[in-house]
């Protein structure tokens, strides 16, 4: 008891508590960027005009009335951007969830069941992994003339889950052989309970990181498909915006305000998600945590001490 | 030996899966591609019954035969290299069209990927070795390049370097007006000149992935006991970095190299579209635009086979480099 009331100890534990709660700057920056863009996608479309509305003021530079200028046919770029953000995020979210579900089915269940189920599931996901994704997407979507958003999302999910399944399988294999899982099995827990209650919580960090990856992949994949003219018809995404900008020779006409914003938003969103992923990686694998000069300075080592330490490790 | 057999078996299964997918996809999809193709072919010249039959096998509308026999015939045709006739490049067969365009893609994408891999691994090694140095702090910045949609980056660079600055040509594989394709110096020089900008964009957009992977593995490897042993033995820092740490850290990247090849091929479709490069991706896109299903299937098949072949090669090499893989099998 005496030790607990000792002011020095109290201060020290408070400092430690504070340090533990401090989020890494990468995580904060990533969350702010992604949160901002998501908010824009949710709220934006309510405040802008009709993105399809054609006007006779084609290719007006950004200015009053049109925040980001207009397209070749006088459509408002800002309005399009708001709808496109919503569309792209929806596709990213759907594909991310679908790919994760497929990966979990084939990765986790296969690895847990073992035996021929595992052999078959991992063979199937490895085959899906080596089949090149984009050509497959192109082939599938070129057979269908009028593509809805859901079809494009489905194709993206089908061609992107395999990598995640492989990672999940490897992690599940290592978790399922731990003693506490064996104990749960011996004490008569049912298989689904072991899977959902004992194993799944250990996979959460990996699942989040894989989800973030799939979302980036889906948004970039959709943009690529849309850019070569195979995106969903009659929908607004960052990719279709870029497709129309490319078609309207936006770059050659110098209409940077039409071509640059969708690309910048994709980049920002992708970079934000990547930063979130970095910090998750650092939580999962402490070895990767930053030891920048700033943190070392935080240890309050004097210059002489650092010099001695560096001399010793040379 | 079991390792090699297992690997070989896996790729045979993968190839079979690709062929089967190719066979069934047009049959599942709505619409009648054969009539569409025959109509287009007829506009360009007479269509013999053999061509019709070959197309029907490829795309599947021949309802007189049971589907299993069609499947056997199809596999037989593919085994003999008969991939049908292209509408876009009529009367060339699909096989010759592919033979013309494949070398362009392999040369461009192969060289660019190897350059990107080499530089990325080297920089990642240095960043992992000197934790917290400026190079290490640069890594989050380079991931920005990875988040940029590739075609967007390529278009911006194309605009800046060939429209504004006019350093590079705006597209194509070589200067069609002045040089003749073949093994002569002017042609090769022209091809290199035209290929530099596409290669540059590929390197820029893919280097960050290699760097990050190598850096993280390097950091993990550096805390291994054998590194401490090497330090205790008094080896030079350079030797510890290269032959002790980097050599072991590079293994996952090498294994990842095989998987990336699929993405490389996918990337080439968009690269070639942006730079009008005369490779296999351009062929695929013109096939899609002309509803040339036979050519499309051929391209998909060739792409799949090249990816599978490259994967097999990397797997076999990997077994030589890392003996543990052979032991585990």
TrEMBL record, chain A:
<feature type="transmembrane region" description="Helical">
    <location>
        <begin position="27"/>
        <end position="48"/>
    </location>
</feature>
<keyword id="KW-1003">Cell membrane</keyword>
<dbReference type="InterPro" id="IPR000515">
    <property type="entry name" value="MetI-like"/>
</dbReference>
<keyword id="KW-0812">Transmembrane</keyword>
<keyword id="KW-1133">Transmembrane helix</keyword>
<comment type="similarity">
    <text>Belongs to the binding-protein-dependent transport system permease family.</text>
</comment>
<feature type="transmembrane region" description="Helical">
    <location>
        <begin position="199"/>
        <end position="219"/>
    </location>
</feature>
<dbReference type="GO" id="GO:0071916">
    <property type="term" value="F:dipeptide transmembrane transporter activity"/>
</dbReference>
<feature type="transmembrane region" description="Helical">
    <location>
        <begin position="120"/>
        <end position="143"/>
    </location>
</feature>
<dbReference type="GO" id="GO:0005886">
    <property type="term" value="C:plasma membrane"/>
</dbReference>
<dbReference type="InterPro" id="IPR050366">
    <property type="entry name" value="BP-dependent_transpt_permease"/>
</dbReference>
<feature type="transmembrane region" description="Helical">
    <location>
        <begin position="149"/>
        <end position="168"/>
    </location>
</feature>
<feature type="domain" description="ABC transmembrane type-1">
    <location>
        <begin position="89"/>
        <end position="277"/>
    </location>
</feature>
<dbReference type="Pfam" id="PF00528">
    <property type="entry name" value="BPD_transp_1"/>
</dbReference>
<keyword id="KW-0813">Transport</keyword>
<feature type="transmembrane region" description="Helical">
    <location>
        <begin position="89"/>
        <end position="113"/>
    </location>
</feature>
<dbReference type="InterPro" id="IPR035906">
    <property type="entry name" value="MetI-like_sf"/>
</dbReference>
<keyword id="KW-0472">Membrane</keyword>
<feature type="transmembrane region" description="Helical">
    <location>
        <begin position="225"/>
        <end position="244"/>
    </location>
</feature>
<feature type="transmembrane region" description="Helical">
    <location>
        <begin position="256"/>
        <end position="280"/>
    </location>
</feature>
<protein>
    <submittedName>
        <fullName>Peptide/nickel transport system permease protein</fullName>
    </submittedName>
</protein>
From TrEMBL, chain B:
<dbReference type="InterPro" id="IPR000515">
    <property type="entry name" value="MetI-like"/>
</dbReference>
<dbReference type="GO" id="GO:0005886">
    <property type="term" value="C:plasma membrane"/>
</dbReference>
<keyword id="KW-1133">Transmembrane helix</keyword>
<dbReference type="GO" id="GO:0055085">
    <property type="term" value="P:transmembrane transport"/>
</dbReference>
<feature type="transmembrane region" description="Helical">
    <location>
        <begin position="7"/>
        <end position="25"/>
    </location>
</feature>
<feature type="transmembrane region" description="Helical">
    <location>
        <begin position="104"/>
        <end position="129"/>
    </location>
</feature>
<feature type="transmembrane region" description="Helical">
    <location>
        <begin position="295"/>
        <end position="321"/>
    </location>
</feature>
<keyword id="KW-0813">Transport</keyword>
<protein>
    <submittedName>
        <fullName>Peptide/nickel transport system permease protein</fullName>
    </submittedName>
</protein>
<feature type="domain" description="ABC transmembrane type-1">
    <location>
        <begin position="102"/>
        <end position="314"/>
    </location>
</feature>
<keyword id="KW-0812">Transmembrane</keyword>
<dbReference type="Pfam" id="PF00528">
    <property type="entry name" value="BPD_transp_1"/>
</dbReference>
<feature type="transmembrane region" description="Helical">
    <location>
        <begin position="191"/>
        <end position="212"/>
    </location>
</feature>
<feature type="transmembrane region" description="Helical">
    <location>
        <begin position="249"/>
        <end position="275"/>
    </location>
</feature>
<dbReference type="InterPro" id="IPR035906">
    <property type="entry name" value="MetI-like_sf"/>
</dbReference>
<comment type="similarity">
    <text>Belongs to the binding-protein-dependent transport system permease family.</text>
</comment>
<keyword id="KW-0472">Membrane</keyword>
<feature type="transmembrane region" description="Helical">
    <location>
        <begin position="150"/>
        <end position="171"/>
    </location>
</feature>
């Amino acid at each position: 008891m005496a030790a607990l009331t000792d002011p020095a100890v109290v201060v020290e534990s408070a400092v430690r508590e504070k340090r533990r709660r401090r989020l890494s700057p990468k995580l904060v920056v990533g969350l702010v960027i992604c949160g901002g863009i998501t908010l824009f996608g949710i709220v934006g479309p309510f405040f802008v005009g009709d993105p399809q509305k054609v006007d006779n003021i084609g290719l007006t530079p950004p200015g009053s009335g049109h925040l980001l200028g207009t397209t070749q046919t006088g459509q408002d770029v800002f309005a399009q951007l708001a709808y496109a953000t919503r569309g792209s995020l929806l596709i990213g979210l759907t594909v991310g969830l679908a790919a994760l579900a497929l990966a979990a089915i084939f990765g986790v269940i296969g690895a847990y069941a073992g035996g021929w189920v595992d052999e078959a599931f991992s063979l199937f996901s490895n085959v899906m992994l080596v089949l090149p994704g984009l050509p497959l997407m192109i082939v599938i979507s070129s057979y269908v003339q009028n593509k809805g958003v859901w079809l494009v999302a489905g194709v993206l999910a089908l061609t992107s889950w395999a990598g995640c399944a492989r990672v999940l399988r490897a992690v599940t294999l290592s978790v399922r052989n731990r003693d506490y899982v064996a104990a749960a099995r011996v004490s008569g827990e049912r298989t689904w309970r072991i899977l959902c209650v004992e194993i799944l919580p250990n996979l959460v960090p990996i699942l989040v990181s894989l989800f973030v990856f799939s979302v980036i992949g889906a948004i970039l994949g959709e943009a690529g498909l849309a850019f070569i003219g195979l995106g969903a018809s009659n929908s607004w995404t960052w990719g279709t915006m870029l497709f129309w900008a490319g078609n309207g020779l936006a770059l050659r006409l110098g209409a940077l305000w039409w071509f640059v914003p969708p690309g910048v938003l994709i980049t920002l969103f992708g970079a934000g998600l990547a930063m979130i992923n970095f910090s998750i990686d650092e939580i999962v694998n402490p070895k990767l945590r930053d030891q920048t000069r700033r943190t070392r300075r935080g240890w309050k080592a004097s210059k002489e001490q650092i010099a001695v330490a560096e001399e010793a490790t040379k | 030996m079991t390792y090699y057999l297992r690997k070989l078996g896996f790729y045979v299964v993968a190839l079979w899966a690709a062929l089967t997918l190719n066979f069934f996809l047009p049959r599942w999809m709505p619409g009648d591609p054969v009539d569409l193709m025959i109509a287009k072919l007829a506009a360009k010249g007479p269509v013999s019954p053999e061509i019709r039959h070959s197309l029907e096998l490829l795309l599947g509308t021949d309802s007189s035969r049971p589907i299993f026999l069609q499947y056997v015939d199809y596999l037989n045709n593919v085994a003999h290299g008969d991939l049908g006739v292209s509408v876009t490049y009529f009367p060339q067969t699909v096989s010759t069209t592919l033979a013309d365009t494949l070398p362009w893609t392999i040369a461009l994408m192969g060289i660019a990927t190897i350059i990107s891999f080499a530089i990325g691994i080297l920089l990642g090694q240095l960043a992992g070795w000197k934790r917290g140095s400026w190079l290490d702090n640069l890594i989050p910045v380079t991931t920005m390049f990875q988040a940029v949609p590739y075609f967007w980056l390529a278009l911006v660079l194309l605009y800046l370097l060939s429209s504004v600055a006019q350093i590079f040509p705006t597209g194509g594989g070589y200067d069609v007006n002045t040089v003749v394709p073949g093994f002569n110096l002017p042609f090769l020089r022209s091809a290199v000149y035209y290929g530099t900008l596409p290669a540059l964009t590929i390197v820029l957009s893919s280097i960050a992935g290699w760097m990050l992977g190598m850096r993280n593995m390097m950091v993990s490897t550096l805390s291994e006991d054998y590194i401490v042993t090497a330090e205790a033995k008094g080896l030079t820092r350079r030797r510890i970095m290269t032959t002790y740490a980097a050599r072991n850290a590079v293994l996952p990247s090498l294994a990842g190299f095989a998987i990336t090849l699929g993405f490389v091929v996918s990337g080439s479709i968009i690269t070639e579209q942006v730079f009008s490069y005369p490779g296999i991706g351009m062929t695929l896109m013109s096939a899609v635009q002309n509803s040339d299903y036979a050519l499309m299937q051929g391209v998909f098949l060739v792409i799949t086979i090249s990816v599978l072949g490259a994967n097999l090669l990397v797997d076999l090499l990997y077994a030589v480099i890392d003996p543990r893989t052979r032991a585990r099998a």
